[in-house]
Automatic annotation (TrEMBL), chain A:
Coiled coil: none
Names of the cofactor(s): FMN
Organism: Mangrovibacterium diazotrophicum
Protein name: Ion-translocating oxidoreductase complex subunit D
Gene name of the record: rnfD
EC number: 7.-.-.-
TrEMBL record, chain B:
Lineage per the UniProt record: Bacteria, Pseudomonadati, Bacteroidota, Bacteroidia, Marinilabiliales
Originating species: Mangrovibacterium diazotrophicum
Annotated residues for binding of [4Fe-4S] cluster 2: 378, 407, 410, 413
The encoding gene: rnfC
Protein name per Swiss-Prot or TrEMBL: Ion-translocating oxidoreductase complex subunit C
Family label: Belongs to the 4Fe4S bacterial-type ferredoxin family. RnfC subfamily.
Keyword rRNA-binding: no
GO biological process, any: electron transport chain
Matching InterPro entries: 4Fe4S_Fe-S-bd (IPR017896), 4Fe4S_Fe_S_CS (IPR017900), Ion_transpt_RnfC/RsxC (IPR010208), Nuo51_FMN-bd (IPR011538), Nuo51_FMN-bd_sf (IPR037225), RnfC_N (IPR026902), Soluble_ligand-bd (IPR019554)
Length: 327, 443
């Protein structure tokens, strides 16, 4: 034999799965919702998404090449994914310069300052989003009306914001609900909101795809959404005048987007299914608390970031069940 | 619902190309190299020297202790030297070189293939014969069988579990044996049951060998004490602890042996060897080896004399393909990559796997994306990503506390990691180090 043989320790076979494949599958799972947002918000949606993706990848390249002095890894898909998720979390009408700042914060602060993919404790897209929300509250909360809505208004508040404002002024929930989209509208996405949060149904479609391809497991989304449903349900039953019915909460304000695409970010969520249970319930509880009692109408971004902070702790204390009983 | 073990597991592509290839007798080699250490435990002591004439079945090396096994000549001819040569481990090993002349067997060995069902031997006689015959676990672990049959005081075997799982992709030797030697196998199982004084045996077989399940089920339909248990296809079900869990639901405690839950596990190849040893006086001098690979022209199952050079097997299977990138002794999950085909078939050789070039290379490792897959697939409930990190950083107390010694080196974690991290490489390193620390503490 003239040729050299490879000698390496076992195992000698490997799954065809790779980090890139996982990232691109998540991106693919987001495509239906993306198409819908283009349908609803037109070219603005294209502009915001493209800008966010290009800016995220660009900043990642520049920072890795010139600041960190390492081989840029922008083709692994993670920067592009952060870009799409960031775009999904802002109004389609957002000025271009704001989204670029958001991308810089997401990639630069949220991810690379910790050492890059795998080392960041917080979901980068959420870091970007929350930074923008705090810095540019006005631009971040004026929601454009969809192209297909029958109204003359240009912007409006999201259903959750309208409700929160109304309840604060003492109006009963039932009255407020008359002026809001029906559950069916919410389900397919005929409402005001960020690009990625408006169509619950298409997000669920993406969820199904990711489950099928085994990109993520069902645990986190189900525990997040289940907790929101149960907790909000209890509040609703206790006082239906003050609290909205739970299904409404599931279908609005990024609950789906957060539960399916942000909370499941592998890097920042616990490793074991048991840990994911705690993580998911935590996000659900905090979301409901913020939405009903906090300063913001929306709460899942904060809830995920807070629970991201607990992930290392959960990983340290929640061990998988060992074979043979030893702890 | 098919039975299986609960925790973790993976399902690599099966690639059982040789599954329908009947076992063929490989032609006698011209010369053999028979290492004196083909088992776990002390090496055997060579009894022959240069120039000696040996017959097939003659003891040429005597067991070097209780946990050791006799070595017999697999051919007849002249000992040309007793010297070092490389075996599948990659290290030079002491062994006996024999030049083949004719095929002359020891007189006491029955060479015809008629089935001998009846036996009157008692437990002790059977164990003695197994000991004599140098039988070791043929699944790859090569633990001397007679040791397993003598449970330490205070423990008692309740059942025998026969490992017909063959969960390694590509390998089909056990599959063919179950199909072609069913009746002999059952006698072997009865002999093992008698040796252990148990009255229940289970044969665990993965469901991708439906024909073997059917045929063995038919054969033991009239014998309630032997039960065929079809299992869901999931790697590493052939691991003793996983197999016991799958078949009986019992969990061997961390750090303990199967006997702690009353089980003794034996491979189908071993059970067949037991039949031959007790009923035919035939020591362990040959075994079935799968020779396979994607670009091999004739994937096959061969009955091979121990000591035959691996390249003769590959020649018989159509020759080494052009695109060969890696040669593995054993299966792709736990087998060992070897540097050349100039190595002998030993008692533990279950297969020779030829991998084409692109598949042979490792991919470069990336950052851990903390996806948790390695944790989900680990059949021992460990946290491979963590064990790798602590081994890399040499934090041995942490590695021990997180049960690194429980790792069965199945490779499921490395197999599944999307970032191509060499998890098991580091865990092996850590296991070695922590093992040393534990042993030094005991002294
Ligand atoms: S090799 Fe060890 S750590 Fe990795 S999956 Fe198997 S038992 Fe678990
Ligand atoms: S499978 Fe690989 S990438 Fe995923 S957690 Fe384990 S080591 Fe990290």
């Amino acid at each position: 034999m003239s040729k050299l043989l490879t000698i390496s320790p076992s195992p000698h076979v490997h799954t065809s799965d790779s980090v890139n494949k996982i990232m691109y599958r998540v991106i693919l799972a987001l495509v239906p919702a993306l198409v819908w947002s283009v349908f609803m918000f037109g070219l603005d949606a294209v502009r915001v998404t493209l800008l966010a993706v290009v800016a995220c990848m660009g900043f990642e390249y520049l920072i890795q090449r010139f600041l960190m002095k390492e081989e840029p890894k922008i083709t692994d898909g993670s920067a592009a994914l952060t870009g799409i998720l960031l775009a999904f979390n802002v109004p389609a009408s957002i000025p271009s310069w704001i989204i670029i700042i958001g991308a810089l914060v997401a990639v630069g602060v949220g991810k690379l300052s910790f050492g890059g993919l795998g080392n960041n404790p917080f979901n980068p897209a959420l870091v970007g989003r929350v930074f923008l929300l705090i810095s540019f509250p006005v631009q971040m909360t004026s929601w454009p009306i969809g192209i297909h809505a029958q109204t003359d208004a240009v912007t409006t508040a999201t259903p959750l914001a309208i409700l929160k404002e109304g309840v604060k002024n003492g109006q009963p929930v039932a009255d407020l609900m008359h002026n809001l989209p029906s559950s069916i509208d919410l389900l397919y996405g005929n409402m005001a909101g960020s690009m990625g949060e408006i169509s619950a149904m298409l997000l669920l479609l993406g969820f199904a795809y990711m489950l099928w391809k085994k990109v993520i497991s069902w645990h986190i989304p189900v525990f997040v959404l289940g907790t929101i449903f149960v907790f909000q349900g209890v509040l609703f039953l206790a006082n239906p005048d003050k609290f909205i019915e739970p299904v409404f909460h599931l279908l609005t304000g990024g609950a789906m987007l957060g539960a399916i695409f942000m909370a499941t970010d592998m890097v920042t969520s616990p490793m074991t299914h048991k840990g994911q249970l705690i993580f998911g319930i935590g996000i659900g509880v905090i979301t409901v608390l913020i939405r009903n009692f906090g300063a913001y109408p929306e709460g899942i971004s904060f809830a995920i970031l807070i629970m991201n902070g607990f992930t290392p702790l959960i990983n340290a204390y929640v061990k998988p069940k060992r074979f043979g009983g030893k702890k | 619902m098919l039975k299986t073990f609960k925790l973790g597991g993976v399902h690599p592509a099966e690639n059982k190309f040789s599954a329908d290839k009947a076992i063929e007798k490989l032609a006698l080699p011209k010369s053999v190299f028979i290492p004196v250490a083909q088992h776990i435990g002390a090496p055997a002591q060579a009894l022959v020297k240069k120039g000696d004439q040996v017959k097939v079945g003659q003891v040429i090396a005597k067991a070097g202790g209780f946990v050791s096994a006799n070595i017999h000549s697999s051919v007849s001819g002249t000992v040309t030297k007793v010297d070092l040569a490389t075996d599948a481990s990659g290290y030079p090993k002491q062994g006996i070189f024999i030049e083949v002349a004719g095929d002359e067997w020891e007189e006491c060995i029955v060479t015809d293939e008629t089935l001998v069902e009846r036996f009157e031997a008692d437990s002790k006689t059977i164990i003695d014969k197994i000991n004599e015959a140098g039988i070791v676990g043929l699944g790859g672990a090569t633990f001397p069988t007679h040791v397993k049959l003598m449970p330490p005081p205070g423990s008692k075997a309740e059942m025998l579990i026969i490992n017909g799982v063959e969960c390694e992709p590509y390998l089909t030797a056990d599959h063919r044996l179950m199909l072609e030697k069913g009746p002999e196998l059952l006698v072997g199982i009865r002999l093992l049951m008698c040796a252990l004084s148990v009255n229940k045996a289970y044969i665990g077989i993965e469901n991708n060998k439906k024909d073997a399940i059917e045929s063995l089920k038919k054969l033991c339909a009239s014998d309630a004490s032997i039960e065929v248990v079809p299992l869901k296809v999931k790697y590493p079900q052939g691991g003793e602890k996983q197999l016991i869990k799958a078949v009986t639901g019992r969990e061997v405690p961390s750090g303990a042996l199967p006997i702690a839950v009353g089980a003794v596990v034996s491979n189908v190849g071993t059970a067949f060897a037991v039949y031959e040893a007790v009923q035919k006086n035939k020591p362990l001098i040959e075994r079935v080896v799968t020779v396979t690979g994607k670009s091999l022209s004739k994937p096959s199952n061969f009955l091979v004399r121990i000591g035959t050079p691996a390249n003769e097997l590959v020649e018989a299977a159509g020759g080494l393909p052009e695109d060969t990138g890696k040669i593995i002794s054993g299966g792709p999950m736990m087998g060992k990559a070897v540097a050349s085909l100039d190595i002998p078939v030993t008692k533990g050789t279950s297969g020779i796997l030829i991998m084409p070039d692109p598949d042979a290379k490792r991919k470069t490792s990336q950052n851990c994306i903390r996806c948790g897959r390695c944790v989900t697939v680990c059949p021992m409930g460990l946290e491979p990503f963590l064990l790798m990190t602590v081994s890399e950083k040499q934090i041995w107390e942490r590695a021990e506390k997180d049960c690194i010694m429980d790792c069965i080196e199945c490779g499921s974690c490395s197999f599944t990691c999307p970032a191509d991290r060499p998890l098991l490489d580091y865990i092996r390193l850590g296991k070695g180090k922590v093992g040393q620390i534990i042993r030094s503490r005991k002294k």
